[in-house]
Write a structure and sequence with these properties.
Elements: H1 7-21, H2 26-32, H3 38-42, H4 56-64, H5 103-131, E1 149-151, H6 166-181, H7 194-209, E2 216-217, E3 226-231, E4 237-245, H8 258-266, H9 281-294, E5 303-308, E6 330-336, E7 342-343, H10 344-350, H11 357-361, E8 369-372, H12 384-403, E9 414-423, E10 430-441, H13 468-471, H14 477-487, H15 490-504, H16 512-533, H17 540-544, E11 549-559, H18 565-571, H19 577-581, H20 595-603, H21 617-625, E12 632-642
Parallel strand pairs: 1-12
Antiparallel strand pairs: 2-3, 3-4, 4-6, 5-6, 7-9, 8-10, 9-10, 11-12
Pfam family, one: PI3_PI4_kinase
Organism: Spathaspora passalidarum (strain NRRL Y-27907 / 11-Y1)
Domain PI3K/PI4K catalytic: 212-552
């Protein structure tokens, strides 16, 4: 049945249609501006007062069955008396397209507004997309599972303490600090708690966005890095740290160094380091600090991944803005500035290291100097004690760089400082000052490779070119007692791996596969360190000559509680005896089935899989209970592998 709408309702219907599809409606304008107004979206449009008594259902049907020939339609009345109410139509409005209306100005205004709307909605976003770096949604990182090492390749020594609890690790740290400083335990200078760093971050953000003390770009280096300033209580401005944005790295799309841009654009085959993950320097900086904290060395300044914004940062044309609060945030690494340190190459030129045997034999035993009571400047001179101090500090740098396989450690990216302490004296006119050498490791953005260098360059460590009197000596006893208990502790490795993974997962391009490769290289390097520290005659030179190794983490599921004698028998069954007697064992991970054993089990199809004697206890439990069955725990079996890739072409570069 077709309904016919009287001519009196055509005007009302046309008005409703224009309100519902008009480009000037509030909902349409809200969507075009890119924002949402909850009040406008939640409040329905109120119909005209003259249509208050019309049935909504009938009107919706009348839009689809309109006919000008119909003069009467049934209208449902909301009134209880069911008495028809006369329809009051609004006064007719003049046609906007009539000659009496100024069409030229109206058309130009509409054209300008439409063009501005089109520019905001389409042109500017398209230009930003074309000229800005590609932005990817942050991938979902797999939930952190328990990292429990069941079998470790790092074997502890019997005469050294074993660290099996967090309390043991802290006591070891306290003992190391007190033995080095000869005073009661106190936190190192580079130590910074989370609360202190949070306060520092709030302070520098306020300095930038409210006081407009903007960061200053550093001219040295191959990436965009900036000095971040702070204000002391007395009003003095000081350098609080160094910020390195991710998108301004040499691999980044917004690197401000034109030489690196030309290098990457015109000579891509000679650019970058294939062993490193591109655009991950800021994560490497923070991971170096994390590893240094776990090693209890504290030679790396506190470093964390943060977000900052400033007009002095290098932005694309479409993101530039004079108002700092309207600029997009940049993610990068923030490293606390080392106060009072000098670059190693500058300090060594000013204080040449004794290298020949005759000069070293004539050195005094101590470097203490006696000066006037009011003197504040002191002259450093080498002595037997200062040579020992410098060697122990360099050994900290050697172990840190070697474990994280730093590919960019020269004499220009580690620092040296001499602290002076007054020695008790009976004189009232003079004082005796004692020097203490400290080392700071900065610029660790080219570390943590996913494979060993195997192409053109080998990236040797810069400290290998120090005089033989420093780098050619065996590792000191203090260094051995410091690092061996840590590197051979399962608990320490579990905490360190969890901490490093937490840093690397902050990157939106984090990949689990590459992380496992990075960890294999790191553990292989640490294995070489442990083996060298066990030898009393070996030092950094012997460490650098070690072959490249990898330590992979194999996952296995084991039962949490073994109560029955049958399960104990399975655990002690053919996992050790059958495979070893048939020479199918793996000398590094005896708990894992070897490839030869897998081949035989696949070829002998007549063997019953339910037979207990045909498999080890681990295989039987995993087969019956399932890999992720309730009651099984996830453990790590470390597997040592020799690197088989060819050495780089240039071993000295």
């Amino acid at each position: 049945m077709k309904f016919k709408i009287p001519r009196e309702l055509d005007v009302v219907n046309d008005q409703l249609r224009s309100n519902s599809v008009s480009p000037q409606s509030p909902l349409k304008r809200t969507e075009e501006n890119g924002c949402t107004d909850n009040d406008d979206l939640a409040t329905p449009q109120t119909p005209p007062e003259s249509m208050a008594h019309l049935n909504t259902q009938f009107l919706s049907r009348s839009w689809h069955h309109s006919n000008e020939d119909s003069k009467h339609i049934p209208v449902k009345i909301k009134s209880a008396s069911m008495v028809p109410v006369p329809l009051i139509l609004p006064p007719a409005e003049p046609d906007l397209g009539s000659r009496s209306q100024p069409t030229s100005r109206r058309g130009s205004v509409e054209y300008d507004s439409n063009f501005r709307r089109f520019t905001r909605a389409y042109l500017i976003p398209a230009a930003k997309w074309a000229y800005s770096p590609l932005s990817k949604n942050k991938k979902k990182v797999k939930h952190d599972e328990d990292y429990i090492i069941e079998y470790s390749t790092f074997r502890p020594l019997r005469n050294l303490p074993q660290l099996t609890s967090a309390r043991d690790i802290f006591i070891h740290w306290r003992r190391v600090v007190e033995d080095e400083t000869k005073i009661p335990f106190d936190f190192p200078e580079n130590y910074l708690s989370e609360r202190d760093f949070s306060m520092l971050l709030s302070h520098i953000t306020e300095i930038i966005e409210l006081e407009h003390e903007f960061p200053q770009r550093i001219t040295q280096g191959s990436s965009g890095s900036y000095f971040i300033y702070g204000r002391r209580p007395n009003g003095e401005i000081y350098k609080a740290g160094v910020f390195k944005p991710k998108d301004e790295e040499p691999y980044g799309p917004l690197s401000p160094k034109w030489s690196k841009w030309a290098h990457r654009t015109f000579f891509p085959c000679c650019f970058g380091r294939s062993c490193l993950i591109p655009n991950l320097g800021y994560i490497s900086e923070a991971a170096a600090c994390c590893l240094d904290r776990h090693l209890q060395s504290y030679i790396v300044p506190f470093t964390e991944v943060i977000c900052l914004r400033s007009p002095t940062f290098f932005y694309s044309y479409w993101d530039q803005n004079s108002d700092v609060t309207k600029l997009p945030q940049k993610i990068g690494s923030f490293q606390v500035f080392l106060q009072g340190y000098s670059e190693a190459d500058v300090w060594i030129r000013q204080n040449p290291i004794p290298s020949d045997h005759e000069t070293i034999s004539n050195l005094p035993k101590y470097s203490d100097v006696e000066v006037d009571i009011n003197e504040s400047e002191f002259t450093f001179k080498w002595s037997i004690e200062s040579m020992r101090q410098f060697q122990e500090e360099v050994e900290k740098l050697v172990i840190l760089d070697y474990i994280m396989r730093n590919t960019d450690r020269g004499l220009d990216n580690w620092m040296i400082r001499v602290d002076w302490t007054q020695v008790d004296s009976d004189s009232k006119t003079t004082k005796i000052m004692k020097p203490k050498i400290k080392i700071g490791a900065i610029d660790s953005g080219l570390a943590f490779p996913w494979k060993h260098p195997d192409e053109w360059r080998s990236f040797p460590f810069g400290w290998l070119f120090l005089p033989y009197s420093i780098i050619g000596q065996p590792f000191s006893m203090r260094t051995r007692n410091h690092y061996l208990p840590l590197l051979t502790s399962k608990l320490w490795w579990e905490q360190t791996v969890k901490g490093l993974r937490g840093v690397f997962t902050k990157d939106q391009d984090f990949q689990e596969r590459l992380w496992h490769k990075q960890l294999a290289v790191l553990k292989g390097q640490a294995f070489n360190v442990v083996e060298i520290l066990k030898l009393g005659y070996a030092g950094p030179l012997e460490l650098a000559k070690r072959e490249n190794l990898l330590v992979f983490d194999d996952v296995m599921y084991m039962p949490e509680n073994i109560d029955s004698n049958e399960d104990i028998f399975r655990m002690q069954s053919s996992s050790y005896e059958t495979d070893t007697s048939r020479q199918y064992d793996d000398i590094h991970t005896p708990l894992l089935p070897s490839q030869a054993h897998t081949y035989l089990s696949n070829s002998l199809v007549a063997i019953n899989e339910d037979d207990v004697a045909n498999g080890s206890g681990y295989e039987h439990i995993n087969r019956d209970s399932g890999v992720n069955a309730t009651g099984n725990r996830r453990v790590i079996i470390e597997r040592l592998v020799k690197e088989t890739s060819r050495p780089p072409v240039f071993t000295w570069w």
